[in-house]
Design a protein that fits this description.
- The chain is of the alpha+beta class.
- It has 19 helices and 27 strands.
- The protein has a ten-stranded mixed sheet with strand order 19-17-16-8-7-6-5-2-1-27. Strands 3, 4, 20, 21, 22, 23, 24, 25 and 26 form a nine-stranded mixed sheet that branches. It has a four-stranded mixed sheet with strand order 14-15-9-18, covered by helices on one side.
Length: 695
């Protein structure tokens, strides 16, 4: 036995010693004509002769700053997370094979246009060149070489998570479907915390200067594979776009070019159906559809899972598919089918690429009509004075007469989808009389003030279009709607607004606390503190911290649905904790709400569902470490002559490299609600370049 253990230990040492000598080996053909200019913030401005040159340079620059998250994203698409990162992520690898992600990619790859394929291949070359030249020790050798198809697969994998696929799978496995889920209190396992977003656009008719304005204000996780990376992409083939992208992305996802810009917020259309199968009583390998017995399609699933060091084990499982979709088994042993949109469309990158290169509204809208991106509210503005909003959703054409929000009995082909509705059938709004649009993860039926909003009665309930109004949406309508001529400074101030509306859930909940009957002096004092709060979240407010800790769990519950017993217990529990942590209920919000990055530890304004949105994880000392919310913000203004002024800010900086000066170089500006200039024109880029090189 001892000899066997020593043999295994020696083998591990041998593997480890060999791995140190192995390298990423290869040559990257077709060297690209590209130059990277980094400004004083470390932001890369990538100039190339062709689009493919730019994609190559983007990959190299992003790899310099965040190779770990790039590889994570690409390996998620490959179905290799468990193999490289351990058992906690192995369920994702099972999902990749169960839904046939790569089968769908190979089958539909011909649908992707040639330019997008070339772009993705060039990006992959940039990653491979980085690996060869830099030999990062923490990247497994087997990831090499990265391919263009890896990028496309990565987008096919992550996109459904934005409209809630992971939540539905979790509910099905837990035997809890259907169940309402919350936007602010749910933390997905794979891609981090997506906590909403804001987008605002103002047309010349409501602009004090006659300019057109666009504010992109997404609320993504602050770390991980869906944290924003800023870049400026410019080729001699008409590509000149600046904005934010995720690691492993060859294109800008939110931002602007010289003529137009756009941004997204997460929406919650009904793009997922769950079916209960009618199994044959005599043979459970068959299910009945329209009286016909159909055999389950068996899928052999095999993947590796890392245990420790180089030691991995092989996992072999059997999965099943049906004519409705893949089968998922709940903890009670029941089998359900989950059907979701976008699982077989590889054109997501292509659509964003065409949006990047669009030069006017018609071209941009033509790209949107592809509907390869299956969800997201989308706001738009351009230098010609147009503003636009669309509730983007690849909504299935479903048979009337069924309650599609509930479990569907899959015993007839009548419940199969019949394609999707067209782009023109979606809720949308072009150039409203009000002169502004907003969306803050809210209903499309209250996009602006006045009579131009899409009408709720025009859209079937089966579309699942949300009717909620977040505090951010209520406040934005109050702020923009009550200002007939909006200045640049006002737009930025409205974006950084720090108040809960008197019409918000949280304001109603505080009123509800007066219905709590108690003789407990601690609880009475706590309720008095809540009623003293002015619903504002600046760093020096002494009541905000106690209010947020007490009421966060109830933020998305209508006041008339609040359980007073649960509410009073939560307030009392928070009161006891605050006495322990702070010795008082009154503590400046900035002492509690913190941005922590390396050696930087800064106070933050804002809070949950505030326009200046900040979401934090409680720490043992009674403070909050911010992990999501306002992150990469980019603002664009086109003046009357069509010239563009652009500003942006990142919550940290341009790199994940802890040794870099730019690891947290923007954090202080961010904490002060300030933005930096974006260098968009070539003269400004060259004038402000700190580093210039060819990858």
């Amino acid at each position: 036995m001892i000899r066997k253990i020593l043999t295994i230990f020696s083998l591990i040492l041998l593997i480890n010693s060999c791995s140190h000598r192995l390298k990423f080996i290869g040559e990257v053909s077709n060297k690209k004509d590209v130059t990277i200019y980094r400004d004083e913030w470390g932001v890369p401005h990538i100039y190339g002769k062709k689009d493919t040159d730019v994609a190559y340079g983007l990959a190299y620059a992003n790899a310099e700053d965040d190779i770990d998250n790039i590889i994570f994203s690409l390996m998620a698409g490959r179905g290799k997370l468990g193999e490289y990162y351990g058992k906690n992520l192995a369920s994702s690898d099972f999902l990749v094979q169960l839904i046939g992600l790569w089968d769908n990619l190979e089958q539909n790859y011909h649908l992707v246009d040639k330019k997008t394929i070339q772009l993705c291949n060039a990006y992959a070359d940039g990653i491979n060149n980085f690996l060869i030249k830099n030999q990062p020790k923490n990247i497994p050798l087997s990831v090499f070489p990265v391919t263009g198809k890896d990028l496309i697969a990565g987008f096919m994998h992550k996109t459904p998570f934005f409209y809630g696929l992971d939540k539905i799978i979790s509910q099905v496995i837990a035997d809890e479907y259907p169940k309402d889920y919350k936007m602010y209190s749910y933390f997905p396992n794979i891609y981090g915390e997506s906590m909403g977003s804001n987008v605002f656009a103002v047309s010349p008719k409501r602009s004090e200067s006659g300019s057109t304005h666009l504010m992109s204000n997404t609320h993504q996780p602050w770390d991980g594979p869906t944290a924003w990376y800023e870049a400026h992409l410019h080729s001699e083939e008409g590509w000149n776009t600046v904005g934010g992208l995720f690691p492993g992305s060859p294109i800008i996802l939110v931002g602007h070019n010289e003529n137009l810009g756009w941004s997204h917020t997460v929406n919650q259309p009904d793009l997922i159906d769950v079916y209960e199968l009618d199994f044959d009583e005599e043979n459970s390998n068959f299910y009945i559809v329209d009286g016909e017995a159909i055999e389950l399609e068996e899928v052999q699933i095999s993947f590796k899972v890392k245990l420790f060091g180089p030691i991995k084990i092989n996992i072999n499982k059997i999965g099943y598919r049906t004519i409705f979709g893949p089968v998922f088994e709940s903890k009670s042993g029941k089998k359900y089918v989950i059907k979701f949109q976008g699982m077989d469309d590889p054109r997501v990158v292509e659509q964003w690429y065409k949006m990047n290169k669009a030069q006017n509204f018609d071209e941009w809208k033509s790209a949107m009509k592809m509907m390869a991106i299956p969800s997201f509210n989308t706001g738009y503005a351009d230098k010609y004075g147009n503003i636009f909003y669309v509730y983007n959703a690849k909504l299935p054409n479903r048979e009337p007469g069924y309650n599609w929000s509930e479990l569907i009995l899959g015993n007839t082909k009548a419940v199969m989808w019949n394609g999707s509705i067209s782009f023109e059938e979606l809720p949308q709004l072009l150039n409203p009389q009000s002169g502004f649009i907003q969306n803050c993860n809210s209903t499309p039926f209250k996009t602006t003030i006045g009579n131009d909003n899409p009408k709720k009665s025009h859209f079937p309930k089966s579309y699942g279009i949300e009717t909620i109004m977040t505090n951010r949406a209520i406040r934005s309508l109050e702020l923009f709607g009550n200002d007939s001529l909006i200045s640049t400074d006002e737009i930025i101030n409205y974006k950084y607004d720090l108040k809960y509306s008197p019409q918000s859930n949280i304001a109603g909940i505080i009123k509800k606390t007066n219905d709590i009957e108690t003789e407990n002096p601690l609880l009475i004092s706590a309720i008095n503190i809540l009623n003293k709060w002015n619903l504002e979240t600046s760093i020096d407010n002494p009541y905000t911290a106690f209010a947020i800790f007490s009421l966060y769990d109830f933020l998305e519950i209508k006041p008339n649905r609040i359980n007073l017993h649960e509410l009073s217990n939560n307030i009392l529990s928070t009161a006891k904790k605050f006495k322990k942590w702070h010795g008082s209920f009154e503590v400046p919000w900035g002492d509690v709400n913190r941005l922590v990055r390396g050696k930087v530890n800064l106070p933050l304004n804002g809070g949950p569902d505030i326009n200046h949105a900040i979401y934090g994880i409680p720490q043992k000392n009674g403070k909050l470490k911010a992990i999501a919310g306002d992150c990469y913000i980019i603002y664009a203004e086109w003046d009357k002559s069509g010239n563009i002024i652009s500003k942006s800010i990142h919550q940290y900086g341009s790199t994940q490299n802890e040794k870099s000066n730019h690891y947290n170089s923007q954090a202080l500006l961010f904490s002060k609600k300030k933005m930096k200039d974006v260098y968009f024109y070539m003269d400004d880029v060259k004038k402000n370049a700190i580093q210039i090189y060819n990858p």
